[in-house]
Amino acid sequence: MGIEFNKETFRDDYTFKNSPAAVRRFPFPFPEDDYMYSVNMEPHVPGRKGSVFEHTFDVDEHYLAEMRDRELVLKSDPLRCQSLPHMTLAGWDLLELIMESKARDYPHWFELHKSGDRWTWINRPMEIEQSFTFLKDDTLPYGPLEYITRQTQGDFTLQDQRDNTLYIDAGTVTTQADWSLDFDVGMAFHEWHAPVPLAHNMGVFDRALKFLLKLQLGSPVRRFNWTMTVDPLLDTSPENYPKWGPSKTTLTMDTIGKRQHLRVELQTLHRLPRSNAIAFPIRAYLASFDDIVTMPKWGRRLHRVVRDVHPDLATYKGFIRNRDLMVQWLSQYDDGKPTSPGWWPEPE
Ligand code: HEM
After folding, report:
1. What is the count of structural domains for the chain?
2. Are strands 81-83 and 260-271 parallel, antiparallel or unpaired?
3. Residue nearest to atom 25 of ligand 1 (CA)
4. 3-class SS of residue 263
5. Do the domain assignments include residue 345?
């Protein structure tokens, strides 16, 4: 597997870009020409070779650059990683899940050697070799959650299950779509989802929670979420709003193709073995509108979705202001032809 890791930035000069191969494997989130919230969960089983579903945790060309960005965010705001005291065991569970998965799926990059509870972890891309005692906190340079999420793409939250609900009691969140771990930490499932429009009345959250409370060890599930981001900025946090909010006012017909990004989250949910907590990795993928329209089916479909999506969703997702401009630009790529079902770029 000869991926070259990109040298790129997600801030300042924004040198982030997708290779043609990364565009082809981009998880375009729309299986149909329209979109509404639903309980869109399916088993997280290995998918097509080369796709973002091939492995439990996808490692791609952006790995090292994303880890560098996380390091910068944590340096300027350490509260982006928090773990309430009772969640340390869940952090170890997550560390084990990630290390075992990556060593199994990418043996040329990652190795895990165990001798009883003495473990050695090798992360070749990041040039890390670390020996430690499993479940012994003071043998790692950070807590287990922070240690492993500084080496794994995507945000992570850990939910404690009690009182028939889930509590967001730990997480590392540096690449989020306008929500704050510091604000949400300690909240229950319906509380942290309170700002979402329409879905509560549709019963989406009642059904999703009921399903999650029964999630079984070894049977993870996945779902997509999506939003829009101007410029390839990973850290679109409320804490950082003054830095990215105003960028929405500067898009034009000439710049939108390059600057407007569809931001897709591949979210997975895993029951953890010792803590009985649920891990929620939120892996974000960015593609510019220019990238998207290289796949004719995606260009047509994105035009129709953005044009027709409920205004409350466009407002919540933060792009109502630029919706007309997006539709105008995307319409150049919609010839009115039908699209095939499913999200793969072309029919099989
Ligand atoms: C247990 C793990 C989960 C966590 C930690 C989580 C967390 C969040 C957070 C923090 C938000 C943003 C809320 C805000 O505006 O402040 C959100 C949005 C949302 N969540 Fe979840 N969520 C979880 C599971 C789910 C599941 C299983 C569903 C399935 C239906 C779901 C559906 C949604 C939807 C539809 C939105 C609105 C997203 C958008 O339009 O951009 N969530 N979630």
Report:
1. 1
2. unpaired
3. 208
4. strand
5. no
6: in domain = no
**Using alpha carbons only, how large is the chain's radius of gyration in Å?**
20
pLDDT tens-digit readout, 120-162: 999 999 999 999 999 999 999 999 999 999 999 999 999 999 9
Confidence category of residue 344, pLDDT binned at 50, 70, 90 = confident
Give the model confidence (pLDDT) of 38-80 as tens digits: 999 999 999 899 999 999 999 999 999 999 999 999 999 999 9
Q: Residue 3 domain-assigned?
A: no
Q: Is the minimum distance from the CB of 188 to ligand 1 under 6 angstroms?
A: no
Report pLDDT for 209. 98
Residues in the chain, overall count: 348
Any idea which residue has 């101007």 for tokens?
Answer: 230
Verify whether ligand 1 is closer than 6 Å to residue 39 (CB atom): yes
- pLDDT at 347 exceeding the cut of 60: no
How far, in Å, from the CA of 340 to the mean position of ligand 1?
A: 28
Amino acid at 4: E
Residue 205's domain spans which residues?
20-333
> What is the model's pLDDT at position 2?
62
- Does residue 179 line the site of ligand 1, with CB under 6 A? yes
- Contact present, 176 and 168 (Cβ < 8 Å): no
Q: Which atom of ligand 1 is nearest to the CA of 184?
A: 10
User: Hunting for tokens 């409350």 — which residue is that?
Assistant: 312
Residue 282 C-alpha to ligand 1 middle, in angstroms? 10
In this structure, is residue 7 part of a structural domain?
Answer: no
Q: Tell me: the pLDDT tens digits for 272-306?
A: 999 999 999 999 999 999 999 999 999 999 999 99
- Mean pLDDT along residues 13-35: 97
Ligand 1 within 6 A of CB of 270: no
CB contact at 8 A, 197 and 204: no
Tell me, using a 6 A CB cutoff, whether residue 185 lines ligand 1: no
Active site residues: 223
How many Å lie between the centroid of ligand 1 and the Cα of residue 9?
A: 27
The SS3 of residue 167 is: strand
The rounded Å distance from CA 193 to ligand 1 centre is 6
As a whole-number percent, the residues of the chain with pLDDT over 70 amount to 99
Q: Which pair of structure tokens corresponds to residue 100?
A: 């075992």
